[in-house]
Structure formats: structure tokens, C-alpha cells
Amino acid sequence: MEVNNGDGVGHSNMSRKVADEENSAVVIPETAHQISSDSWFQVGFVLTTGINSAYVLGYSGTIMVPLGWIPGVIGLIVATAISLYANSLVAKLHEFGGRRHIRYRDLAGFIYGRKAYSITWALQYVNLFMINTGYIILAGSALKAIYVLFSDDHVMKLPYFIAISGFVCALFGISIPHLSALRLWLGVSTVLSLIYIVVAFVLSVKDGIEAPARDYSIPGTTTTKIFTTIGASANLVFAFNTGMLPEIQATIKQPVVSNMMKALYFQFTAGVLPMYAVTFIGYWAYGASTSTYLLSSVNGPVWVKALANISAFLQTVIALHIFASPMYEYLDTKFGIKGSPLAIRNLSFRIGVRGGYLTINTLVAALLPFLGDFMSLTGAISTFPLTFILANHMYLKARHNKLTSLQKLWHWINVCFFGLMSIAAAVSALRLIAVDSKTYSVFADI
Question: Where are the transmembrane segments (predicted)?
Fold first, then answer.
């Protein structure tokens, strides 16, 4: 039974227990974070912030270049539709079985049992750790881009900027106690996103008009094209999915399912349009020579590009907090960190534990700045299973008696197809790691 103390935080003297098929129990503690307090509009902005983070500046290079015009455009549209569908399946199971499942692992544990609970926990946190590490690399790259605009002495290397970025991300993480507390910062994030998206779009249009004919052919040998196409397909689904939908849905007010559907529709309408725009225009302007970080390709006034990179850096700091929040929630709940965020014990805990967690992220980011290869592998073994395979199979198992034979077949097709895609993407990522490990060294300045 959940007791609300009036501040929107659910507490209970007794942990809920979910029995699996062997009558063993998965202990599910009440969260120390704020839940059921946010409007669907605020949650929609949380989801949109994830889509239009600085990662969007790389999609023209990581998606369009390996796929080309027709497969790239069709792929993005199809990925949008199937991602909305898969996320809606998970959203509809949020109150399955007469209780609210505020964590992905809670839902998996309730449906499958203890083993699935543990496996889902591991897959999700590895995925989120790699995303957080990637954000720190992005922030460091934006800072380096600013530095290069005003200096060519090459004294400051990328690992130094990654360290600065990690420190700033830690300060922000310590200051924001939980996901719902982002509120005003979501508006700031939206403005920052618009700045670097508009700058990238306008300068790319200018370059595209002035440039000679571009080469849109897919680079590489036949074997390389096959593997890069598979990798690009994995990047397509990564662009839209968080692997933490129940944790985000936990913050939304009742009715949680209908409100979450509104937030998802907001994300996949208003949210994807800027991403489409900057991705397509970047590829149109630069073709196969598109940089993996679009602001590195564009030509324009120094102060404009500096403003865009500053915006990308600051927005990345905010976006990282979203994907780090499940780890923060786990740690705060485990150690009973609740009450006033400014209480000495709570503040010191956040400084020590969150600071330590982001220090590890920062070290990995500096050590492996070509982390994109490892993120492709992580996406293959975690994002695909969490977002598509598990979502379809959980819905199939939970609604088994209410589905027609055709609906059951549809979900099984999805499970099998994305299972094969996951295997193919993992093989492609391992090959990419093997190739790039010959080129890059640890703590590389790239």
C-alpha cells in the first residue's frame, strides 16, 4: 500500500513483493523520488529533450551517409512509427496487474519473475551508462569546437574538455534532486536545442546553395557497406528510444496511461520535425563528406558557430540528467535519501555518490573518445531487446487472452525480426570496434 505524505512522494512501511513462477520474490521498494506530479506536457518536453539533444547533429553522418537518400528518409520515417508503437505498448502496461510499475525492471519482474527482473536491470543500466558517457563526449567535443574557433595552438586536447564537461555535469546533477525538478530547465533546454538546430540548418542551407555538386554515393567496399548499413539501422532506432519509459511515466499525473500517450504523440510530432530538418539538410549540403558532428562541417561567422556550440554544450548537460536519473533514483532509494534536497545528509550524499558516478562516466569518456563504436554494441545488446523485443513480448504475454490470432502473430513477427536485427547489429558493432581500435588510442584527441 502506498502512502502519500503530501509532497508527491510515495512511501510505504512495507516493500511490495512480486512472486515469480517459482514463488520466490522480487522485492520492489517504494521510490525516494517524486512521482505522479508532472503534467503530460512537461513529460512531453522530457521526451523531446532526449530526441533533440546534441546527438541530432550527428545523424546526417551516422544515418544518412551509410544509407543514402531513399533508404535514409524511409528509414527515419519507419523508425519513427515503430518506435512510437513500441513505446505505446510499454506505456499501456504501466498499470498492469492492478499496480503501477514505475521502473522497467519492476514491470519485467512482475510479468516474468526474478531472472527477468535482474537481466532487465543489467541491460538498462549498461545502456544508460553508455548514453551518459556519450553525452559527456559530446559536451567535450562542443567545448573543443569553441576552443578551436579562437585558438590553433592545440595545447588543450579533447580529454581535457571531457574532464571539464564531466565536472559541469556533476554540478548540475548534484543541484537537481530528481527528474521532476527539471521543470524550468526543460524550457531552457528547448531554447538551447533550437539555437544549435537553427544555426546548423541555416548555415547548411547557405553552404549547400553555394557548393558544387555533392557526392551522395555510399562510401566503402561492398562488405563495408553491408556492415555500415546494419549499424546505421541500429542508429535509427537509437535516435528515438530511451530504454527508460516507465521511469519517465512514473512522474506523470493520473490518468497515467492516457497522459503518457499524449506525451508520446507530442514527442513524435513536434519533437521529430527539428531532428528531421537538421538531418536531411546536413546530408543535402555536404553529401558523403558530412561530418559526424554537423557544426564541424558548416561555414559561417565565428560568433554564430561559437553560440551554437555553447548551446550544444549546455543542452547536453541538461539532457544527461534525464538519462542519469534512473541511477540516481536507485541510489537515493537504496540509501533512503528523501526529504529536503538541502538537508546536509542528502546534499553530501549527492555530492559524493552522484559525483563519483559521473567521475567514472568521465574517465571512460576520456579513455575511449571513439565510444560511438561501443555504443553501437550496447544498443545492439540492450536498446533493441528493451525497446522492441521485450516491449512486444511483454505485451503479448500480458494481453495474451485479449489478442486475436493475427495480433499474436504480429507481435511474434516483431520479436523475431528485432531479435535478428539485434544479432546483426552486434556483429556489425564488433567489427567496427576491431577496425577502429587499430586507428585510435586511449585518451585520443579526435
Answer: 39-58, 65-86, 125-146, 158-176, 182-205, 263-286, 306-331, 351-368, 374-391, 412-434
Residue with cell 547533429: 57
Report the C-alpha gap between 264 and 47 in whole angstroms: 8
Residue 121 CA to residue 101 CA, distance in Å, equals 14
Q: What span, in angstroms and rounded, lies between the C-alpha atoms of 359 and 168?
A: 11
Sequential DSSP letters for 65-93: HHH-HHHHHHHHHHHHHHHHHHHHHHHHT
- Residues 360-397: b if buried by 16+ CB within 10 A, e if exposed: ebbbbbbebbbbbbbbbbbbbbbbbbbbbbbbbbbbbe
> For residue range 46-85, what is the model confidence (pLDDT) as tens digits?
999 888 888 888 889 888 998 999 999 999 999 889 989 9
| Strand boundaries in 130-278, DSSP class E | none
As a whole number of angstroms, the distance between CA 137 and CA 165 comes to: 8
Cα(287)–Cα(280) distance, rounded to whole angstroms?
10
Residue 85 burial (CB < 10 Å; 0-12/13-18/19+)?
middle
Interatomic CA distance for residues 323 and 329, integer angstroms: 11
* Residue numbers of the chain with a pLDDT score lower than 70: 1-26, 370-375, 440-446
Q: What are phi and psi of 28, to 5 degrees?
A: -115, 105
- CA 234/CA 103 separation, integer angstroms: 24
Instruction: Encode pLDDT of 388-415 as tens digits.
Output: 899 999 999 999 889 999 999 999 999 9
Quote the CA–CA distance of 42 and 298 in Å, as a whole number: 33
* Pairwise CA distance, residues 346 & 9, whole Å: 16
- Contacts of 89-93 spanning 24+ positions with Cβ under 8 A: 89/391, 89/392, 89/394, 89/395, 90/245, 90/246, 90/391, 90/394, 90/395, 91/245, 91/249, 91/257, 91/260, 91/261, 91/264, 92/257, 92/395, 93/394, 93/395, 93/398
